[in-house]
Amino acid sequence: MGQLPAEVSYSQRYGFDAAWRQQQLALLSLAECPNGCAELLHGRVLAGGVAARVVTEFFERLLGHEPARRLLTSFDVERLRETQLQYLNSFGVDYASEAYFEERLRVGVAHARVGVPLSLYLTAYSLLQSLILERVSRTELTPEQGRGVAAFVLRITALDIALATEVYHRTGVSALEDSVRHMRGEREELRRAMRTDELTGVLNRATVMAQLQGALESARRTGQSLCVIMADLDHFKAVNDRHGHLVGDEVLRGVAARLKAAVRDFDFVGRFGGEEFLLVLENTSLHTARQVAERVRRRVSDGPLHCRDSAVPMTLSQGLTQAREGDTPDALIDRADQALYRAKQSGRNCVVVE
Fold first, then answer.
1. Under 8 Å CB-to-CB from 332, ≥6 apart: which residues?
2. What pLDDT digit, counting tens, does each position of 180-230 carry?
3. What is the DSSP letter of 307?
4. Rounded CA gap, 145 and 131, in Å?
5. pTM for the whole thing?
6. Helices (H) and strands (E) in the chain, counts
7. Are 268 and 283 in contact (CB under 8 A)?
8. Residue 26 contacts by C-beta under 8 Å, 6 or more apart in sequence?
9. Are 348 and 232 in contact (CB under 8 A)?
10. Which SS3 state, helix, strand or coil, does residue 41 take?
């Protein structure tokens, strides 16, 4: 049946090294077959066009089996006959070599990829074995030769089946693992999408509020300092009015990127709404939080944002507060908002500490 080329060695891919190959040969007692069995099989039993007739009968039998017929007729049957004849002509020839093992592994991969049911796969191997043994019984051989060739056919068939089904199984497992990895990736992507703001890529409001709640609970348990910054873009409405909302969206994305670049790896940045961003700084003193806020302010105002054909300068006003005993997320945000309002009143592009 059909074969597919492989660019890499399946023996190496699946760990079938020389020691493994020798174990397979020993398990099937192939070393005990009399010398010359392969030569007798191909020089006497399958010679003179017999191999082609075996292949013809093989496909006639398969095409008379409805499940096999449905599968075979979906392919180029004549091409399958050619590849099957190539397979039969190499049957048992130099069977101890790495090349022989590799070719049989390719057969298993080919059938796994096209979705041949394993039960049909094994039935086809058994049918081919029977057809070969029938030809052995019709060939004029000595009793000793006949027994040797028949034993050889049985053992080579067992080897070919073992190799093909082994890689058939591993290919299926590999496909399943790929599917699981793909599903995990999709699940992670979905989780990320649910956590982030679609426009800016920072945390969305629900997620950053959940992080703030968790940070407050952690601060109560550990006694560590927690600070919150409410940041708002200055004169953002004028950007939309002058350049349009598409440029405004790019400005928001650019500012969000600068915010993430300015804070520390363990800080949380979320879009609170419109042009407002909430920064949650865990285990951070008020002094350090002020330094972070200043770094954020400088980063945002450090050169215009290039959006489409426009260069848009942007500054940021920030209100900073520190968590107190008994604070709720709403209480913290309210104080940060008040400080932000004072920053706006103070001329913008500054940090006000509540």
1. 212, 216, 228, 321, 323
2. 777 777 777 667 768 899 999 999 999 999 999 999 999 999 999 999 999
3. E
4. 18
5. 0.53
6. 14, 7
7. no
8. none
9. no
10. helix
Residues 6 or more apart whose CB falls under 8 angstroms from that of 255 comprise: 200, 233, 277, 300, 305, 314, 316
Amino acid 143: pLDDT: 92
Residues with catalytic annotation? 275
Beta strands in the chain (DSSP E): 226-233, 268-273, 276-282, 305-307, 310-312, 316-322, 351-353
Distance CA 319, CA 339 (A): 4
- In whole angstroms, how far apart are CA 109 and each of 2, 106, 121, 227? 10, 5, 12, 59
Q: What is the pLDDT of residues 249-262, one digit of tens each?
A: 999 999 999 999 99
Q: Which two tokens stand for residue 148?
A: 């040797």
Complete DSSP assignment for 88-137:
HHTTTTTTTSHHHHHHHHHHHHHHHHHT--HHHHHHHHHHHHHHHHHHHH
In angstroms, the Cα distances linking 93 to 53, 103, 139, 151 are 19, 12, 19, 15
CB 261 within 8 A of CB 254: no
The pLDDT value recorded for residue 4 is 42
Q: Does position 47 have pLDDT exceeding 70, yes or no?
A: yes
Give the residue carrying structure tokens 């093909």.
164
Whole-angstrom distance, CA of residue 85 vs CA of residue 24: 25
Let me know: does 334 contact 302? Beta carbons within 8 Å: no
Burial class (CB in 10 A: 0-12, 13-18, 19+), 264: exposed
What's the one-letter identity of residue 43? Answer: G
Helix (H, G, I), strand (E, B) or coil at 227: strand
Beta-carbon-side half-sphere exposure of residue 181 (alpha carbons within 13 Å): 6
Written as one letter, the residue type at 51 is: A
Rounded CA-CA distance 125/321 in Å is 76
